[in-house]
Amino acid sequence: MDTMKYLFGAYTAIWIILAFYLYSISARERRLREDVDRLKRQLEKK
Amino acid sequence: MDLKRSFRLDTLFWALLLPAVILALYMAFLEAPREITMKDIQRIFYFHVPAGVAGLTAFTVNFLASLAYLATKKRKWDGLAVASAESGILFIAMNLVTGSIWAKHEWFVWWTWSPRLTSALILCLLYVAYLLVRNYVPDADRRAMMSAVFAVVAFADAPIVWFSIRWWRDQHPSPMLETGGLAPQMRPALYTCMLVFLLLMIYLIRRRYFLETAQHDVEMLERQIA
Questions:
Q1: Per-residue pLDDT tens for B44-70?
Q2: Cys-Cys crosslink for B48: which of A16, A32, B98, B179, Cβ 3.0 to 4.6 Å?
Q3: pTM (predicted TM-score)
Q4: Beta carbons of B101 and A39 less than 8 Å apart
């Protein structure tokens, strides 16, 4: 039972680290899209 | 690369990755036999070892891309270098965390300052420092140049990580594939997991590379508008 607890912990850690990184990339992509929209608006004003 | 082609490649990656992940989980948990001495905790190896291999591969890509940048000064190499550095940190972090959990079960300690563990931690911290250096240099050309030099120097630790368990006496298990420590029935699971981690590494580097180049384009556009 103790072994399974450690095994489960290790696999959960892998998924958490991966999910965290994918979320971080998605957040940066979202910010970039917002920047592009802002630049488009600035260009339209000019 | 045009957006349509990039989207198609992304879809292809997911089409490959999803069944490959399911297959890897099946191989690691159900197909591979239970190890006699360590029992089920040994199954951590099917993800711990491939994470380490993927991490070192990503740092090798970072090293080669940094050399290419120093030789050509082309922006794309700097983009590839930063993308692979981030992926490398991710996989080495997975490797360190899973290794630490295994160590707590087998050695009764979370951490020991053995050559392999210490050199792997230093490698991870070196690339965290690499990313921090990039954040503090506003000029794009200077940033690319400084980080390329830093990356070439930092990579000196990668062979030390790889060879540490061959060069010195270490508490860390010796290389299983070379010493025959892994039973032939367990090898397909390890190879499948290794393939999955390498595919995931390519996918993540690719996605981060496109983000980096797009960020650079936006930066340039902002300067032109201002």
A1: 999 999 999 999 999 999 999 999 999
A2: B98
A3: 0.92
A4: no
